[in-house]
Design brief:
It contains twelve helices and 21 strands. By secondary structure, it is an alpha/beta fold. The strands form five sheets. It has a nine-stranded mixed beta sheet, sandwiched between helices.
Length: 459
């Protein structure tokens, strides 16, 4: 017979304890342990009899397993396919996360329209909205797929039966925090429920070869709500980035077992849904101030795509005993490191100045090629000298003030040349490899931060 016991489960990391503690030993968070009733079942009842499963007890040789690339299902949304690694893989389990109202359900409904036109059978299961509410949103997005079936349900046992009876190609669960299993006594959205429901959905996806998308809510710090093991269980984790106050959205793959995790998709939120941005570099530089001190254009690589962004810096005298340091869109500690290089190697006394660094547009970049652009932006604002608006600056900076080489520099220069930039300041090691390059852009190679400041600011 089944046995029950009370355990205390951390709502952040899923750590279980037989007694309550103020601080979780797993994640060191305070007041996150909640009492739950755990039902312990015999191992023989774990299998789900509703699924038609034929277990093959004979392993297969690696050499005879066929991996045909044509089994990827194209959504015809190029930015979405890029992030997925080329399309939807059969039997994959994808987690889509993001802030409320950022466009998670919107992109999935638009995907339904595109796939329905290809004859793909889709089952959209909602635990938050009624069928009429989904229909109203679908009409606004002009989604009229006859192969899209809607179902409002939160019970996992009923959902399993519906999936087994309908045999869809794609299943969308919106959202995972509203689903619950009758075999778990805790409330929907708790760690135990989220973990159990995701585990069962993963089993359904692999056994029935059904591609499954699940929508996940996020916490205050931006991570997906629920245990961290949730992200380890799924095949792909997609995050929507961007502020609700701006129109663009960035879809980033944090984890992808079937493709690169460096690719991003750029969309613009309109009244008819999400629209692809074909030239994100031009879009990111829209509205850039010309001839202003502290504004620099640099280029970063997002997977195979070069992306031009604006780095802004503001240096002003402090009114407090301790100067303020703020970094938006890049690593705060990296900015402090680069400012230390300016103080030590260039002689800029920044100890009595507040410094603010911002990557315009709200995009987050951690690539080291951003270093030289940040340093020139800070120096430009400190000296109140503007950089030529048609100059692009990129390179990695070391602690001794040297400028190190970066990868795929030729692709970055081609992207800058397309947008009309006439001068490019890059590391000396990269400029040697581009000596025979023909084009309308002037390439300047620098070996140190001091040399880069001389070429860009003229002192």
């Amino acid at each position: 017979m089944s046995k029950t016991k009370n355990v205390f489960v951390c709502q952040e990391c899923g750590y279980e304890s037989p007694k309550w503690m103020g601080q979780c030993p797993g994640c060191s968070q305070w007041n996150t342990l909640v009492e739950e009733l755990k039902l312990k079942k015999p191992s023989s009842n774990y299998a789900n009899p509703s699924l038609d499963i034929h277990t093959d007890l004979k392993p297969k040789s690696l050499s005879i397993i066929d991996t045909n690339e044509d089994n990827r299902l194209k959504t015809n949304i190029q930015e979405f396919d890029r992030v997925l690694g080329g399309g939807i893989v059969d039997g994959s389990l994808t987690l889509v996360g993001g802030d409320p109202g950022i466009g998670k359900s919107t992109i999935l409904l638009q995907m339904c329209q595109s796939l329905s036109e290809q004859g793909v059978k889709i089952l959209y299961i909602s635990g938050e909205e009624s069928l009429k509410q989904i229909k109203m949103r679908a009409d606004r997005l002009n989604v009229k797929g006859s192969n899209v079936m809607l179902y409002a349900q939160t019970s996992l046992q009923i959902i399993e039966k519906v999936i087994n009876n309908e045999k869809p190609n794609i299943v969308i669960i919106d959202s995972i925090q509203t689903m619950f299993s009758e075999e778990v006594t805790s409330a929907p959205g708790s760690v135990s429920q989220v973990r159990e429901v995701t585990s069962r959905l993963m089993r359904i996806a692999k056994v029935l070869n059904v591609s499954t998308f699940i929508v996940g809510h996020v916490t205050k710090d931006g991570s997906i709500a629920g245990p961290r093991v949730l992200e380890h269980m799924v095949d792909t984790v997609l995050y929507f980035e961007g502020e609700r106050s701006v129109s663009y959205r960035i879809l980033r793959a944090v984890k992808n077992r079937y493709g690169s995790t460096n690719e991003i998709g750029v969309f613009e939120m309109c009244d008819k849904g999400l629209v692809e941005v074909s030239n994100p570099s031009e879009y990111m530089l829209t509205g850039r101030p010309l001839g202003e001190a502290g504004s620099i254009v640099t280029c970063c690589m997002e997977g195979t795509r070069p992306l031009l962004v604006e780095v802004q810096a503001l240096v002003s005298p402090t009114s407090f005993g301790m100067p303020r340091r703020t970094a938006a869109g890049t690593d705060y500690n990296r900015v402090n490191l680069l400012m230390a290089v300016l103080e030590k190697k260039i002689g800029m006394q920044l100890g009595n100045y507040d410094s603010y660094v911002n990557i315009a547009g709200g995009i987050k970049i951690s690539e080291p090629s951003l270093d030289l652009g940040i340093i020139i932006a800070i120096a430009s604002s400190f000296r109140n000298i503007s950089v030529d608006e048609r100059t692009i600056i990129m390179g990695e900076v070391g602690l001794t003030g040297e400028v190190r080489g970066i990868s795929l520099c030729d692709k970055r220069i081609i992207e800058a040349e397309k947008l009309g930039f006439t001068k490019c300041i890059i590391p000396k090691t990269n400029s040697k490899a581009l000596e025979n390059k023909k084009g309308n852009i002037q390439i300047i190679g620098v070996e140190s931060v001091k040399e880069a400041i001389e070429f860009s600011l003229g002192y």
